[in-house]
């Protein structure tokens, strides 16, 4: 019996002495790029910054971080000049050079001039009011139903394009457009920044349409499938233990947090 106890103690001590397998970070600092986009990332703060900080804490990987325009990010991921980025949308074209690990879902809601509240409650009603203009950011995807609506408005020459979100919401504030599409991470940021919340309404013109998954982007030139699965495991753990919800609740109210987690 004494021998058995000593053997068990020795086995336990041996197990304690074996270190946990280190996370495979690769052989160099990971080159990661953020892009400015509302509550996701703005002047060094945001949801994406919190996500990356948590991944650093869990994996102990070293990152070289910079802020870049989105077009440059995609080009550098494709060429292998960049290793990783955040909040990216997966497409068949992008699958050729990158892995995608979703961690939030973004759905576009309608921001509408409050003076139209009694007249407009649906996309069709907006279409029927020929005095209204709709604003979009050039090249943005919005969702199946939203993009179909925009195509119909463009056919009527009632769409104004803007180069970025700031210019788009500037037009909305000035009354040059009467409606725009934007996800909560964008419109909550812009409403506070421009102090225009009282003059706008938020409507959901596609209540049965889910948001578009956005996720961590890993360049295939930098990460193997096995490495990608390890990063996927970290994101899954953050979802399971409530870390993602905790991060999102720092920036958005609970109903919108639930929508972000629906991916």
From TrEMBL:
Annotated Gene3D superfamilies? Periplasmic binding protein-like II
TM regions (residue ranges): none
Keyword annotations for this protein? Signal
Which part of the chain is the Solute-binding protein family 3/N-terminal domain? 44-253
Q: Which InterPro entries match?
A: Solute-binding_3/MltF_N
Domain of life per record:
Bacteria
In the record, which residues are listed under signal peptide? Answer: 1-22
Check the record and name the Pfam families matching this protein: SBP_bac_3
Quote the protein name from its UniProt record: Transporter substrate-binding domain-containing protein
Name the species this protein comes from: Chitinibacter fontanus
């Amino acid at each position: 019996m004494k021998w058995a106890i000593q053997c068990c103690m020795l086995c336990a001590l041996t197990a304690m002495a074996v270190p946990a397998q280190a996370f495979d970070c690769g052989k160099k600092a990971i080159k990661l790029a953020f892009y400015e986009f509302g509550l996701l990332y703005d002047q060094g703060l945001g949801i994406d910054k919190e996500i990356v900080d948590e991944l650093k804490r869990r994996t102990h990987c070293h990152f070289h971080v910079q802020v870049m325009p989105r077009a440059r990010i995609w080009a550098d991921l494709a060429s292998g000049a960049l290793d990783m980025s955040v909040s990216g949308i997966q497409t068949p074209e992008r699958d050729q050079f990158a892995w995608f690990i979703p961690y939030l879902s973004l759905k576009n809601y309608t921001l509408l001039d409050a003076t139209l509240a009694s007249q407009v409650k649906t996309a069709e009603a907006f279409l029927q009011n020929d005095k209204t203009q709709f604003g979009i950011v050039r090249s943005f995807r919005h969702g199946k139903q939203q993009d179909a609506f925009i195509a119909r408005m463009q056919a009527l020459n009632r769409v104004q394009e803007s180069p970025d979100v700031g210019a788009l919401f500037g037009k909305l504030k000035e009354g040059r457009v009467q409606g725009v599409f934007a996800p909560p991470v964008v419109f909550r940021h812009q409403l506070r920044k421009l102090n225009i919340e009282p003059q706008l309404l938020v409507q959901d013109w596609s209540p049965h349409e889910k948001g578009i998954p956005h996720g961590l982007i890993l360049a295939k030139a930098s990460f193997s499938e096995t490495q990608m699965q390890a990063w996927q495991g970290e994101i899954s753990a953050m979802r399971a233990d409530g870390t993602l919800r905790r991060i999102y609740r720092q920036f958005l109210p609970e109903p919108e947090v639930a929508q972000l987690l629906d991916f």
